[in-house]
Amino acid sequence: MVLDFLSEHYLKLILAAYFIWVVGAVWTLLLQRRPAAATLSWIFAFVALPFISGIYYMVFGPRRLHRRRLRYSLARRSIAGQIQEYIRGSACKTKPRLSPEADALAKVVSRLGQGDPTFANSVKLLDTGDTYISSLERAMTAAQHHVHCEYYIWEPDSVGTRIRDLLTTTALRGVEVRIVVDAVGSRAANDHFWKPLVDAGGEVHHFNPLRLSAGGLNFANFRTHRKIVVIDGSVGFMGGKNLHDPVSATTSGKGAWRDMHTRIDGEPVRRLQRLFIENWTYSGGKFVLDLDNVKRYMPEARECPGKAVQILASGPDDDRYSIHAFILASISTARHRVWITTPYFIPDEPLEFALKIAVLRGVDVQIIVPHEGDSKLVTAASRTYCDAMGEAGVHVFEFGPPMLHAKTMIVDDTLGMVGTANMDNRSFRLNFEVAAAFYDKDVIDQLAQTFAEDRAVARHHKRRRGAKLSALLESVARLTSPVL
Fold first, then answer.
1. Partners of 395 in beta bridges
2. Does residue 306 lie within any of the structural domains?
3. Residues 373-386 pLDDT 10s
4. Is 232 among the catalytic positions?
5. What's the domain range around 404?
6. Out of 3-17, 278-292, 321-335, which region has the weakest mean confidence (pLDDT)?
7. Would residue 225 show up in a list of annotated catalytic residues for this protein?
8. In angstroms, rounded to a whole number, what is the distance separating the alpha carbons of residues 166 and 172?
């Protein structure tokens, strides 16, 4: 009798807790005003699998992280207020003259608050890891005032140690060295690894470190996925290459990743500098932004027409998701070709639809993806989208091995883009990313040539027939697309 009473009592408590959980979860999701399909999916998950879905949401869920976003926005506004007037007054007075098609795309970026195209004195594409490392080392060795680095992955391996040691020597020369590394992507690079650089006067901060709190459990989101180096405010590096052994054929041989990076000299670097300073400040770094100091970090632009470049960035602090919007606009206006290289191809519905419509308009749409990526889950999910693209008339190619890690896009003879963003929801909405849009024909032609070379050694993607178990697993992996 007593046991029956206790069992009934505990059952009521469990049902009450379940009811409170469901009501609270639904209330929270509805207030976020996210897309209806995503909201309904989470509601069904919370109702059917309350414990499992709760843990999954805490780790991967697309929460707004209001407090962190507020703190990041405050860092951004403090920088904007102090340097905006100087930036406007010291910019190059001659503006790039673009084709009507390029001008229309550039206006999209400008109206998203990303700034207008500016002239780069030079642009160099760095398509091999050893070329990238040697170019980086030469620029760092020549630094006179400062070296700023922001990386998602910086490993304490041969390549990572080599660059750290070079920066240690650079700091001993009196050059200011500041580094921001992501707390998840660069978790192996601990304080012991950075000690020689810090002892030499360099400064290192971790972006969004993990904390034992409800917000801290959401460690998969709000990462800086950028790879930026700024030297003396006038030399910039950005693209897909991290600092770890897989980037180099010297250390990894034939297994070195295929990737794309770029060196940009001139006024566009000031935009990269501002992005770095925002994340440096957000990460707790000190930075005095009086006028004299700003001039040292963002030197006055030279009146020197060169190659038109537009730097655009996105992150979870801005609901406009500029890189995603720009990619959609570029595909939608393409007339002849859209060539994309991406290691993660997990498109959302608008991107998937835009690519299919482009094919129907007669545009040559080609996509190169890895044959096997660095994540089995992503590779499995990606194959389902590649199947759908192939059926819609998109030419999908699989590269490798080695691993393909480049993130590029070519649209007609109008646009070439190199960036850090993958074609997935995580890059578009959950991480901080950066890209360079090039409107110069020579740069576009070089990117197109590299694409053609990679396509020549790739194979056509073919739907896997007969393997029902594999197809089922890939379909299950597809369900995780929103958080991949």
1. 366
2. no
3. 777 777 778 888 99
4. yes
5. 322-483
6. 3-17
7. yes
8. 10
